[in-house]
Write a structure and sequence with these properties.
Layout: E1 27-33, E2 35-36, E3 48-49, H1 55-73, E4 77-85, H2 93-106, E5 108-119, H3 123-126, H4 129-135, E6 139-145, H5 149-154, H6 161-174, E7 177-184, H7 191-204, E8 208-213, H8 221-227, H9 236-252, E9 256-259, E10 262-264, H10 271-277, E11 281-285, E12 290-293, E13 300-304, H11 308-318, E14 322-327, H12 330-341, E15 348-349, H13 350-357, H14 363-371, E16 375-378, E17 381-384, H15 386-390, H16 392-400
Helix pairs in contact: 1-2, 2-4, 7-9, 12-13
Length: about 400
């Protein structure tokens, strides 16, 4: 285990911040680890199968790019750090500790800052859990995806359901907070099958679940198979029924749908994702990472090079792997804020939208969407109804046209 050379924040308690939309939305740091053991057929993330990685070199490169991001963001208080991928649980605990130490040296860590690492529940990676905890990770996000071995094979996962349950049990013993993912609306999945699987998952869950409907992303292995008719997804109305059933079952277990695909016990929402959805600032380091940050009224969108080799060579040459830094116009900021915020059950502040975008939303459009049962307004707060959240793209197209 790494000895550590920074002061680890206190573990978050059960009362994670649930600030109303008008309050300060926070600042977060995202670190992308692009390497995987295998490429899942549904995945369109920036992930690459590489046998051997020089982790010391990658730790140095991530630290150097974070220094550049600090120059863009200015001094901030870090509410959360998220190691995503790829498969971050292929990182050595020493690599995680080195990156966290650099972040703590560049910005101020909030008391009880949330530090999440995504992990796959294979036995080899589960053995590293204690090392990650010693390095400073206080929240684990497990990519379980299913508790059925046949379905795991279909999804291209390398672990079994038994391994997943062992990893969940181990993580609950080690980390103060735990989340895991499941994918539903799979080919041939009935409401009865999904209810059985979800209730089994809830029996093992801690305080947070991310539950995603299977979607076919372009240029994935599943996209090619789907186009050839190798499998079919549930019809739209069946998928909608599964979504409604998911919310009902989770609510019975005390986990509310605080976001379209995320369910949490009171106070256990993902602080990192709340920074995104509340349109806070964040920096992203690593191949293909995105950011939204700036100083004063200026706000820029950042994007780094996607290919790991290109990225690390650029960092070692230039001090960063950025391929784009673009100023975001006020109107575009307002659109982004609404796109993210209406995913949340807590909704969006109309006054904050007007301040950011420079123009208030059209009351007539809000009224029309409210009459259609897709939006509801309570004073300054605009929310999507449960029906509206299932049709959010269409709602946004009408609201922001």
């Amino acid at each position: 285990m790494p000895s550590g050379n920074w002061s680890m924040p206190a573990s978050p308690d059960s009362a994670a911040p649930q600030a109303p939309p008008e309050t300060e939305s926070g600042f977060a740091v995202y670190v992308h680890w692009p390497f995987c053991q295998s490429k899942c057929p549904y995945c369109d993330f920036n992930s690459h199968v590489v046998a051997n990685v020089d982790q010391a070199r990658w730790a140095r490169a991530l630290a150097r790019e974070l220094e550049h991001m600090r120059a863009l963001s200015g001094p901030r208080r870090v509410r959360s750090v998220f190691f995503g991928g790829g498969t971050p649980s292929l990182m050595l605990p020493e690599t995680v500790e080195a990156v966290l130490s650099k972040i703590a040296s560049l910005w101020t860590m909030e008391e009880g800052a949330e530090i999440t690492l995504e992990a796959n529940p294979t036995s080899v990676e589960a053995d590293r859990f204690r090392g990650y905890r010693a390095a400073g990770v206080n929240r684990l996000s497990l990519g379980v995806q299913s508790l059925d071995d046949a379905e795991l094979k279909f999804l291209g996962r390398l672990h079994s359901a038994e391994e997943a349950l062992r990893a969940i049990a181990l993580a609950r013993d080690i980390f103060p907070r735990l989340s895991f993912d499941l994918i539903y609306a799979r080919p041939g999945q009935t409401a009865e099958k999904w209810e059985k699987e979800l209730r089994a998952a809830l029996a093992h869950a801690a305080d947070h679940l991310s539950l995603y409907q299977l979607t076919i992303e372009p240029e994935t292995a599943f996209a090619r198979l789907y186009e050839k008719g190798a499998f079919a997804l549930p019809a739209d109305e069946d998928a909608a029924d599964l979504y409604a059933l998911t919310g009902e079952i989770c609510a019975q277990a005390g986990l509310s749908a605080y976001e379209v695909s995320n369910y949490a016990a009171p106070g256990a929402a993902s602080r990192h994702n709340l920074v995104y959805w509340r349109y806070g600032d964040y920096v992203g380091a690593g191949p293909g990472a995105h950011g939204r940050t700036g100083q004063g009224a200026a706000r820029v969108a950042t994007r780094t090079r996607r290919l790991p080799g290109d990225w690390i060579e650029a960092v070692e040459r230039d001090g960063h792997g950025l391929e784009a830094v673009e100023e975001i116009a006020p109107a575009a900021q307002g659109d982004e804020m609404m796109l993210m915020g209406l995913r949340l059950a807590e909704g969006v502040s109309l006054a904050r939208y007007a301040r950011i975008s420079g123009t208030p939303l059209d009351p007539a459009r809000i009224g029309a969407l409210a009459r259609d049962g897709l939006l509801m307004r309570e004073g300054d707060i605009l929310r999507a109804t449960p029906e509206g959240r299932m049709l959010l793209d269409a709602v946004l197209a009408r609201l922001l046209a």
